[in-house]
């Protein structure tokens, strides 16, 4: 017998269930408990960068919006830098931007929104340029292990075409499942997205 | 990494400790999907229409997955880890008083410090304080059912609550959840993000739960069951349960491979 390695095993995932709001967004469950709450607003008035709204839905295999889904996003700041010690790239940190938020879908419409800024392009440790993107994590009743995907921006065509992750996707048509569409509404910039859990337009999910 | 390094003995466990190389900030260890429930698990009916059918695209961790949100004590309030007091209006909540404690570790056995742990649960009668829960068991006016804590430098966390009750749910006509507490854990990178549930030693509903039995690996299932920890109980006050949570380990970057010219 060789020497044992004895790594521990990761704890198994379990569904977040239908009442995930109690723990993560208690105001949506219908009560007020914490002094400080996490939310879908990532910006303060002093955050640097272009204000954007991310707005979308998560659809099940019949095309019906999930009305009990919870999304979290994690993104770089306007300079392309993550607010984390492992990111040693050159862009300036922004003290007014953690880069993370969470949102529950509306109980009637299923709509999910985030108020954030458009992230800058990222330079990976190998020096590769990566198109601006937002990392998305999805949990809900019926989702046994959180789903990881990304949102890219429709007005970044050249950067998207060169992005190393988008180019990992074999079928060009599936790359489109990760592109959020820019529009302007009452002077606000909105990026719309749809996440399809199943079906011919199933969103690309990553094993990170 | 030196493959010849002798395994140390952990006197508490009487087995070799896992090797803990210098803490790195490279990519995370490949997730072992065989210990997690599959996305499509027909015995848990809600998963059928909510499970991707294409293969997940394997993504070598980039800076986007290695990094993740950082939280601090400024994000929390002083009662956040005391579910007996954090929603009390005119007395304590009804139920068995318990402390839940443990460590958040990574797969190398190292404690994960300063990471956010959030938890939520039903009350002692199995009812959630949630606008969508209509179970006939009553709401407890003194119980909210949620809390959160930041691990200390060794990865240790604890909170106080009442033991949740089992509750019925619509899967089969007569499906009941074993008593459980939901946990959300961050780790240092977004690829470690994990939601799970803790169960209680000896609960006869565990082997027949359609959600718990989505886990294909018996040992992985057993690791979600918290033992009674009598040594950690407070005499004449509360029992204790111990629940350790293991997040993915992280590779060290021994050598940086940079593209020429960078
Ligand atoms: Fe539950």
From TrEMBL, chain A:
Supply the PROSITE patterns for this chain. Answer: INTRADIOL_DIOXYGENAS
Enzyme Commission number(s) of this protein: 1.13.11.3
Class in the EC hierarchy, top level: oxidoreductase
Pfam families according to UniProt: Dioxygenase_C
Q: Which InterPro entries match?
A: Intradiol_dOase_C, Intradiol_dOase_core, Intradiol_RC_Dioxygenase, Protocat_dOase_a
Q: Keywords in UniProt for this one?
A: Dioxygenase, Oxidoreductase
As given in the record, the signal peptide range reads none
Q: In the record, what terms sit under GO molecular function?
A: protocatechuate 3,4-dioxygenase activity
Question: Does this entry carry the keyword RNA-binding?
Answer: no
Q: Which residues form the Intradiol ring-cleavage dioxygenases domain?
A: 54-82
Sequence similarity: Belongs to the intradiol ring-cleavage dioxygenase family.
Protein name per Swiss-Prot or TrEMBL: Protocatechuate 3,4-dioxygenase subunit alpha
What organism, scientifically named, is this protein from?
Bradyrhizobium agreste
Gene name per UniProt: pcaG
UniProtKB/TrEMBL annotation, chain B:
Matching InterPro entries, A to Z? Intradiol_dOase_C, Intradiol_dOase_core, Intradiol_RC_Dioxygenase, PCDO_beta_N, Protocat_dOase_b
Which keywords annotate this record? Dioxygenase, Oxidoreductase
What residues does the Intradiol ring-cleavage dioxygenases domain cover? 100-128
Instruction: Report the EC code(s) recorded for this entry.
Output: 1.13.11.3
Q: According to the UniProt record, where is the region Disordered?
A: 1-47
Pfam families registered for this protein in UniProt: Dioxygenase_C, PCDO_beta_N
Question: What GO molecular function terms would the record report?
Answer: protocatechuate 3,4-dioxygenase activity
Name the NCBIfam families on file.
protocat_beta (TIGR02422)
Q: Which family does it belong to?
A: Belongs to the intradiol ring-cleavage dioxygenase family.
Protein's name according to its UniProt entry: Protocatechuate 3,4-dioxygenase subunit beta
């Amino acid at each position: 017998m060789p020497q044992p390695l004895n790594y521990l095993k990761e704890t198994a995932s379990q569904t977040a269930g239908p009442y995930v709001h109690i723990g993560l967004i208690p105001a949506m469950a219908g009560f007020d408990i914490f002094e400080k709450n996490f939310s879908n607003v990532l910006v303060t008035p002093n955050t640097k960068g272009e204000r954007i709204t991310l707005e979308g839905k998560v659809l099940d295999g019949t095309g019906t919006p999930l009305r009990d889904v919870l999304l979290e996003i994690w993104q770089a700041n306007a300079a392309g830098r993550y607010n984390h010690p492992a990111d040693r790239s050159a862009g300036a940190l922004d003290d007014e931007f953690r880069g993370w938020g969470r949102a529950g879908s509306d109980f009637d419409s299923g709509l999910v929104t985030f108020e954030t800024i458009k992230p800058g392009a990222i330079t990976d440790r190998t020096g590769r340029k990566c198109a601006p993107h937002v990392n998305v994590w999805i949990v809900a009743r019926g989702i046994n292990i959180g789903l990881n995907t990304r949102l890219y921006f429709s007005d970044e065509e050249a950067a998207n075409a060169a992005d190393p992750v988008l180019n990992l996707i074999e079928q060009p048509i599936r790359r489109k499942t990760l592109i959020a569409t820019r529009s302007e509404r009452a002077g606000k910039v909105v990026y719309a997205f749809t996440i399809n859990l199943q079906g011919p337009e199933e969103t690309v999910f990553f094993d990170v | 990494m030196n493959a010849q390094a002798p395994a140390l003995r952990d006197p508490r466990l009487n087995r070799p400790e896992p090797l803990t190389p210098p803490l790195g900030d490279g990519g995370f260890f490949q997730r072992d999907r065989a210990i997690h429930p599959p996305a499509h698990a027909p015995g848990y009916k809600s998963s059928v229409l909510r499970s991707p059918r294409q293969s997940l695209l394997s993504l070598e961790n980039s800076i986007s997955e290695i990094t993740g949100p950082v939280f601090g004590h400024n994000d929390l309030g002083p009662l956040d880890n005391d579910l007996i007091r954090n929603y009390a209006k005119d007395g304590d909540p009804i139920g068995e008083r318990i402390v839940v404690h443990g460590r958040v570790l990574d797969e190398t056995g190292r404690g994960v410090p300063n990471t956010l742990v959030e938890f939520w649960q039903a009350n002692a009668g199995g009812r959630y304080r949630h606008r969508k829960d209509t179970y006939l068991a009553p709401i407890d006016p003194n119980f909210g059912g949620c809390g959160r804590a930041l691990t200390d430098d060794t990865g240790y966390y604890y909170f106080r609550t009442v033991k949740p009750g089992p509750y019925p749910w619509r899967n089969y006509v007569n499906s009941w959840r074993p008593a459980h507490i939901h946990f959300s854990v961050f780790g240092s990178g977004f690829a470690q993000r994990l939601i799970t549930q803790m169960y209680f030693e000896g609960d006869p509903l565990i082997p027949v739960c359609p959600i718990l039995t989505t886990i294909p690996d018996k040992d992985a299932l057993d690791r979600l069951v918290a033992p009674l920890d009598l040594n950690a109980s407070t005499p004449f006050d509360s029992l204790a349960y111990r629940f350790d949570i293991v997040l993915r380990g992280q590779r060290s970057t021994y050598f940086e491979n940079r593209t020429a010219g960078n």
